[in-house]
């Protein structure tokens, strides 16, 4: 068993700012290796056998030691999204990601709901096809503008 200490950061980033916060068995943890952000330094994501999420501040620099700290499931999810190609792991632990969507259709004024009888709606559709409009709403706006600006 490789027992590794977990720390919590109390202030700063030096070793004096870290407090002992438990331990985990590294051999039984699931590890996602992060990209190096400096030579010999990276941030890994780990999930312990008990299901705790940890962030590992890994260093190979002489005189410095790697640190592990607890993080929330939301932080772990964000790490998996941002730091690699981990779609299967995201689905396994957090479910399917929502499809990306744009900002939506721009507003064109105040929305109103109006009931239109079927015979009038047929006239709107006929006019829309004749004018080559994209939607009923576009045709209705155009007809209203023409009728009210006489």
Textual characterization of the structure:
The protein has about 150 residues and is α+β, with helices and mostly antiparallel strands. The chain folds into two domains: about 5-95, no CATH class; about 120-150. It is built from four helices and seven strands, in the order E-E-E-E-E-E-E-H-H-H-H. It has helices at about 75-80, 85-95, 120-130, 135-150; strands at about 5-10, 20-25, 30, 35-40, 40-45, 55-60, 65-70. The strands form two sheets. Strands 3, 4, 5, 6 and 7 form a five-stranded antiparallel sheet that branches. A hairpin with an 8-residue loop joins strand 1 and strand 2. The longest helix is centred in the last third of the chain and has 14 residues, at about 120-130. The protein is rod-shaped. The termini are far apart. The relative contact order is 0.10.
Protein traits:
150 residues; five-stranded antiparallel sheet; two-stranded antiparallel ribbon; 4 helices
In short:
The chain is built from four helices and seven strands, in the order E-E-E-E-E-E-E-H-H-H-H. The chain has about 150 residues and is α+β, with helices and mostly antiparallel strands.
């Amino acid at each position: 068993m490789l027992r590794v200490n977990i720390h919590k950061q109390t202030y700063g980033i030096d070793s004096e700012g870290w407090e002992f916060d438990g331990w985990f068995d590294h051999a039984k943890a699931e590890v996602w290796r992060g990209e190096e952000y400096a030579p010999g330094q990276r941030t890994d994501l780990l999930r312990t056998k008990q299901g705790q999420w940890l962030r590992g501040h890994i260093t190979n620099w002489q005189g410095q030691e790697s640190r592990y700290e607890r993080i929330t499931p939301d932080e772990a999810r964000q790490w998996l999204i941002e730091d690699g190609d981990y779609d299967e792991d995201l689905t396994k632990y957090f479910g399917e990601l929502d499809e990306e969507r744009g900002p939506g259709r721009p507003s064109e004024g105040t929305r109103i709901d109006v009931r239109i009888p079927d015979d009038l709606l047929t006239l709107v559709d006929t006019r829309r096809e004749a004018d080559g409009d994209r939607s009923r709403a576009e045709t209705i706006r155009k007809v209203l503008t023409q009728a009210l600006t006489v």
